Amino acid sequence: MLRPNANIERFPNLDTLDVASKEVALNLPSPIPFDEWSLQLRNLLIRDPNSIVGEIGIDRSYTINRSRLRCSTDYQLHLFRYQLLLAAELNRPVSIHCVRSAGLLVDLFKSISLPEFPPKVMLHSFTGSSDSLKLLLRLPSKGDRLFFSFSSIINGDRSKSLEVIKAVPDDRLLLESDCASFPQIESNLIAIMNIISYAKSWPLSKVAHITFFNYKSFLNKL
Question: Which of 37, 84, 154, 177 is the most exposed place for a label (fewest CB within 10 A)?
Fold first, then answer.
C-alpha cells in the first residue's frame, strides 16, 4: 500500500502569495498524521461494508477560504492515489470529483495496475469534454469500470453537456441531485432527468429505468 511522501508539500508556492492568503495558511489546523487518518478511513470502511469511497479526487480550481491558497496538485494526487488503492483493496466503488484535471486523471488511471484499480468508478457531475470521455472509456479494461454521473446544478447550463451525455454509453450513465438540501433533491433529479431525456431522445420513463439499473450495477447490487 502506498505511503505518503513527507517531501510533498501542501502549499509549495506559499512565499509567492499575498498576505491574506498566507494568513489563511498560517491559521489552518495542522493536518491529521497520515497513519491516524488512513487508519480511521480504513476502519470506517470496514465498519460499513456497504459504503463506497468518496467523494475523492483532484481540483485545480478550488481555493481555501476564498483566498488564493490551493493545495498543490502533487499533494492532491498523492492522497488520491492512496484512496484509490484502498478502494481496490477493499473492493469498493469510488465517487470521483475532478475539476480542470481530466488529463491528470487519465494519467493517474494509466499508472495504476488493473488489480489495484477499484471495481467501479463514478465521475461525479462530470464536466469533461467528449474527447476526455473517449480517452477514459478507451483505457484498457479500466474503461469498462467507469460510470459518468450528471446533475442539473453543474451540468444544466453547459451546452457541451448535452453532447457529452449523448456520448456516454447507455449502461454507464448515472444522475444525481448534487445537493444536501432535502427539499431540493427531488426537483434537481427531475431537472437532470429532463436534460438526459433531451440529450438521449428518451422518454422520462426510460431515463428512470436505465439510470436506476445502472445505479444498482455501480453498487454491485444486481
Answer: 37
Q: For residue 87, what is its C-alpha cell?
A: 478502494
**Cβ neighbours for 85, distance < 8 A, ≥ 6 positions apart:** 1, 2, 112, 116
Domain boundaries, the chain: 51-218
Q: Express each pLDDT in 26-38 by its tens digit.
A: 898 988 888 899 9
Q: Are 187 and 116 in contact (CB under 8 A)?
A: no
Most confidently modeled of 26-35, 136-145, 156-165?
136-145
pTM exceeds 0.85, yes or no = yes
Q: Which of 147, 166, 154 is nearest to 191 (CA)?
A: 154
Provide the grid cell at 48: 460499513
**51-218: CATH architecture:** Alpha-Beta Barrel (3.20)
